[in-house]
User: Which sequence fits this backbone?
């Protein structure tokens, strides 16, 4: 079938729910301070046919921080376990509307695979429209998924350090304004208060409609990025708390036709803990 783009509506998915090449995945992540458990919620209800894309498992097992970028063999193996082969069209969603699902889109793109879409508004919008959910276990037959190449959409801390000190690059932080400014309790215990020096701030939720949690139209996305101070002619490094919501900014930029960006995978969970990395303690 023809690729519909990086974002699909609930109406589109409902109309194509039985298309054999579509593989739906629930990629919900709940941080420990929420008291919620994504896998348990998935087992209670999910979009019919959806597998659980466990970002805690599809990650680097040797990294001390959770959900870090997975090695090639881990990604290929775990994606294949979800019944996703190189002909599949992956549709990712999360229960909050849009929080962690964009990371699935970014992971596949980094590994050179583009037939991936994010469900606009996620499970929240899907249910608000009265669409079906199921609670039974989905048995997915394992298949082979081959990784052919890697793109350059991943930033590590040395690159971010260089970007933060250069007039030719820019860093945008997707955390709340209070966490960015260092005046709000951070969600990652043990991290320092503040932000990466010279970075800009654009709260990820400001790219969404408040009620439906769907993405804003392109013109409004451009307006939000411009208001945050982005320079459209220069590359961008995107950061957040742990590499989840930075991917929402990446998706937003992609929808605006700007693809010279990278996601800082370690984000504040890494940067904020490392005493050898500089912190700007207050927004200026």
Assistant:
């Amino acid at each position: 079938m023809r690729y519909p783009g990086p974002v699909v509506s609930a109406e589109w998915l409902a109309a194509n729910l039985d298309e054999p090449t579509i593989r739906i995945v629930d990629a919900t992540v709940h941080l420990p301070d929420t008291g919620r458990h994504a896998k348990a919620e998935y087992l209670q209800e999910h979009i019919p046919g959806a597998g659980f894309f466990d970002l805690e498992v599809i990650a680097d097992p040797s990294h001390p921080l959770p959900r870090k970028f997975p090695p090639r063999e881990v990604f290929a193996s775990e994606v294949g376990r979800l019944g996703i082969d190189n002909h599949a069209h992956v549709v990712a969603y999360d229960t909050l509307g849009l929080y962690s699902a964009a990371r699935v889109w970014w992971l596949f793109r980094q590994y050179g695979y583009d037939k991936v879409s994010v469900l606009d508004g996620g499970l929240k919008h899907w249910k608000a429209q009265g669409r079906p959910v199921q609670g039974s276990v989905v048995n997915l037959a394992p298949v082979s998924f081959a990784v052919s190449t890697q793109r350059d959409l991943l930033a590590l801390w040395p690159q971010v350090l260089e970007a933060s000190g250069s007039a030719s690059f820019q860093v945008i932080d997707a955390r709340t304004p209070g966490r960015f400014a260092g005046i709000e309790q951070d969600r990652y215990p043990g991290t320092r208060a503040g932000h990466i020096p010279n970075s800009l701030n654009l709260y990820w939720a400001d790219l969404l409609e408040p009620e439906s949690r769907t993405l804003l139209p392109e013109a409004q996305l451009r307006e939000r990025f411009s208001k945050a101070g982005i320079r459209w002619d220069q590359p961008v490094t995107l950061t957040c708390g742990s590499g989840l919501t930075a991917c929402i900014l990446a998706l937003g930029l992609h929808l605006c036709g700007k693809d010279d960006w990278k996601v800082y995978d370690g984000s504040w969970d890494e940067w904020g803990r490392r005493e050898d990395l500089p912190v700007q303690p207050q927004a200026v």
Summary: The radius of gyration is 18 Å. Strands lie at 7-8, 22-26, 51-52, 89-93, 116-119, 154-155, 170-173, 200-201, 236-239, 261-264.
